[in-house]
């Protein structure tokens, strides 16, 4: 049996590993000239680690990138809005891990034979019968897996009338600082903007920033330092250690719901199927869940029944998490002074177990 995977990111590589481990011939068609990943840190939450466990890779992250659950949310002046019960989160769901995106790609890539990787291959059209047209040729497979991101060629080919990505009204910056000591992972909410930081095992700090802006707006590090200069420590200090050439900025999009993730001998996963707001940090975790679930259902039920079961399991779950992610992050982007004041007054009144209850559907997944 042969699977063609369109896209060599985290979800596509994970799917390729899962099918390779079942004895399938796999080929990963990646547009970029090499299969790697730009980006900064990546928080792998308990459900993502369990998905990696299905590939025999979870312990690599637990050993090299252990991380604690998020401590909670502060406002720009430093007052706690939500304070998480760290011990309870770890007891209920298990460990977290933090890793550079490129390092996770390297781990997944190393689990595949070199012959499976075809960088520099631009896919133009995918057909439901398992045919893929790319620059320079055509290939066919028993199964095609579209893991080619929010602007997926696979999705457009198979569902040409489906609505495309929609901009969420804010842009996102990601960066890694020089080594700096911080006490755990925290997110900070301001007025239409936020700042999060997570310590990396090597002492550096992964930072992500989000701010309301028209699509296409570009902001450099100097402007970010000015924008967040009045926020509480360690925000200004962290930005002070960053390098301008290492700041990545991407506008933030999500995809409207599809009625199915499968058609014929094609399935889509990850951002190609359900690109979501990054507010829960679940994008990569959901792609990993998709990948191992797809391989498991097809492996046990065959292609047709397995694809149907994959769609039955994954579509309601991922669309629910996308909706939850959109909802929980919305108050961070309120830009009304009154609304922000009411938010900052109301959130500290929530019980300490609020996050654990709200996020249980995401963290408690098992294959």
UniProtKB/TrEMBL annotation:
The FAD-binding domain covers which part of the protein?
Answer: 2-323
InterPro entries recorded: FAD-bd, FAD-dep_Monooxygenase_BioMet, FAD/NAD-bd_sf
Q: Which SUPFAM superfamilies match?
A: FAD/NAD(P)-binding domain
Which Pfam families does this chain map to? FAD_binding_3
Q: Which UniProt keywords apply?
A: Monooxygenase, Oxidoreductase
Keyword Cell inner membrane listed? The answer is no
MF annotations from Gene Ontology? monooxygenase activity
Concerning PANTHER family, the annotation shows: MONOOXYGENASE, PUTATIVE (AFU_ORTHOLOGUE AFUA_6G14510)-RELATED
Name of the protein in question: FAD-dependent monooxygenase
Which species is this UniProt entry from?
A: Nocardia suismassiliense
């Amino acid at each position: 049996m042969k699977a063609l995977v369109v896209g060599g990111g985290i979800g596509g590589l994970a799917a390729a590993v899962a099918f390779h481990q079942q004895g399938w011939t796999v080929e990963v068609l990646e547009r970029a000239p090499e299969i790697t990943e730009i980006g900064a840190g990546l928080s792998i939450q308990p459900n993502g680690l369990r998905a990696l466990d299905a590939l025999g890779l979870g312990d690599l992250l637990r050993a090299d990138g252990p991380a604690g659950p998020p401590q909670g949310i502060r406002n720009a002046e430093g007052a706690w809005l939500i304070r998480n019960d760290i011990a309870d989160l770890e007891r209920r769901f298990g460990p977290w891990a933090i890793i550079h995106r490129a390092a996770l790609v390297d781990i997944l890539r190393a689990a595949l034979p070199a012959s499976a990787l075809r960088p520099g291959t631009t896919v133009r059209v995918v057909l439901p019968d398992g045919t893929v047209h790319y620059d320079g040729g055509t290939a066919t497979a028993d199964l095609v897996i579209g893991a080619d991101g929010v602007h997926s060629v696979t999705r457009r080919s198979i569902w040409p009338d489906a609505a495309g990505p929609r901009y969420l009204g804010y842009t996102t910056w990601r960066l890694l600082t020089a080594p700096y000591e911080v006490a755990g992972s925290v997110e900070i909410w301001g007025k239409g903007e936020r700042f999060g930081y997570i310590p990396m095992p090597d002492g550096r700090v992964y930072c992500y920033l989000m701010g309301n802006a028209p699509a296409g707006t570009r902001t450099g590090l100097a402007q970010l330092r000015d924008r967040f200069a009045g926020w509480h420590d360690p925000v200004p200090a962290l930005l002070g250690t960053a390098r301008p050439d290492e700041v990545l900025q991407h506008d933030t999009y999500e995809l409207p719901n599809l009625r199915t993730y499968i058609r014929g001998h094609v399935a889509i996963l990850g951002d190609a199927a359900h690109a979501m707001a990054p507010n829960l940090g679940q994008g990569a975790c959901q792609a990993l869940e998709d990948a191992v679930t797809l391989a498991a259902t097809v492996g046990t039920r065959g292609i047709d029944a397995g694809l149907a079961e994959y769609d039955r399991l994954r579509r309601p779950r991922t669309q629910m998490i996308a909706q939850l992610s959109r909802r929980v992050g919305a108050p961070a982007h309120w830009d009304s002074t009154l609304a922000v004041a009411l938010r900052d007054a109301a959130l500290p009144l929530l019980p300490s177990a609020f996050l654990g209850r709200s996020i249980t559907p995401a963290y408690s997944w098992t294959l």
